[in-house]
Amino acid sequence: MMNDFATVWSERGLLLSGLGNTVLLSVLAGLAALVLGALLSTLLMSPRQLLSLPAKALVDLARCTPFLLFAYIVYYGLPSMGLQFDAWSAGLFALTAYHAAYMAEILRAAWAAQPRAPIEAGVAFGYSGLGLFRRIVLPPLALSSAPVLGNQLIQIIKDSAFLTIITLPELTHAVSSIQSRHFIPFAAFLTAVLLYWALCLVIEAGVAAVGRLAEARR
Amino acid sequence: MSHADVLSIFSGALTTLLLSIAGIALGLPLGLGLALARWAKVPLLNQVVAVYVSLLRATPLITLVLLIFFALPTAGISVGPVTAGLIALVLNTAAFNCEVWRAALLDLPKDQIEAAQSVGMGQALRFRRIVLPQVWRTALPGLINEMSQLVKLTPVLAVVGVVDITRAAVRIGAQTYEPLPPFLVALAIYIPIVYALVSVQRWVERRTTLREAAA
Known about the structure:
Chain A is mainly α and about 220 residues long. Helix content of chain A is about 80%, strand content about 0%.
C-alpha cells in the first residue's frame, strides 16, 4: 500500500499540474461567474418584468440542468452549430455560464434580505445606477453572502472534476491517468480526494476570516 | 435521430429514476443515523462522522465513483457499474443529508425532550413520538433540495458505464455524428424531473412560512 503512494509521489509533476489546473480553472470561473451573476442579479431585481422574467427563466433553467450534461453540450454539441472550442475554453465557459446562474440567485436572495434604509439614504444623497450598486449595495452584500459564495466556490471546484470527461487535464484527469499507467486506483483516487478536501478546508478558513471581518465592521 | 433512439433515451430515464430513488431511499435513513450519532455525541463515532461528512462534502462525485469502481475490485470485491454508482451516490448524499438532519435536530427546543423525559418516555419512544415528528418537518425542504442535487449528479454514473439518460444520449450522438439532438432530448427529460422537485420544495417552504405566520 505504501508502495502505491510512493508511485503516486513519483508522478507528483503530473499531479501538481492537475491540481494547478483545477485551482486556476475554479478561481477564474468563480470570479467570472460572480461578475456575470452580479449583472444577472440586477436584472432579476429589476422592477421591469420585461427584464426580470427572462432572467428568472434562465436562472431556473440552469438550476434544473445537470452540469455534466451541460459540459457535454458545450464541448460536443455546440461544434455542430459551428462553435468550436478547445477543452480548456469549453470547460471554463461551461463552468462560468452554469455557475453565473447560481451566483445570481445567491446575490438576489442576499440583496432582497438587505435593509432598505441605507439604499434609500444612498438615493437621497444622489447615488444612482452603477454608483449606487458599487458604493452602497455591494459592500454589505459581499460580506453577508460570503459563506454562501464560499460554498458555491467549493461547488465549482467539485464541478470542475466533471470536466475530465471533456479531456481537460485537471486533478481527476491527472489521477485517472496515473491509475491507468500504474494500476493503483486506491492510492491515486484517494490522493485526489484528499487534495480536494484540502482545497475545501482552505476555502472554509477564508470564509471564516471574512466572517470575522464582517463581525468587526458591525 | 430515429424513433428508436428517443425510446432508448427514455429507457435510460428509467435507470436514472430507479437509481435516484434507490439513492434517496438509502441515503435518507443513513443520513439520519449519522446525524443522530453526532447529536447524541456518541464518543469516537461523533468525531468519525464529523470527518466523514467534511471529507465527503468536499469530494467530487466523479472522483468517488472512479475510486469505488476501480479500487473495490483490487480489494477482491467485484462491483458492476450500477452497484459502484449506487454506493457512491449513497455515500455522497448521506453526508449532505446528515448535515440537514443535524441542523434540524439542533433546532429542536430542549424543553421538548425534557418534557418527554419527565412523563417517563423511554429513549426509543421519545425519538419516535417527540423528536422525529418535529424534526422531519424542519428538515424537509433541505432534504428535498438534496434530492434534486442527487438527480442532477446521476449523469456522473454514465462515466463508469451505467446506461442512464446521459449515456444513452452520448451513444446515439456517437452513432449519428449529431450529438446535439440527443443531448437536447436528454435535457428535456432532466429539467421536468428536477423542476418538479424544486417546485415541491418551494411549496413546502411557503406552507411552513404560512403556518409559522399563523401560529
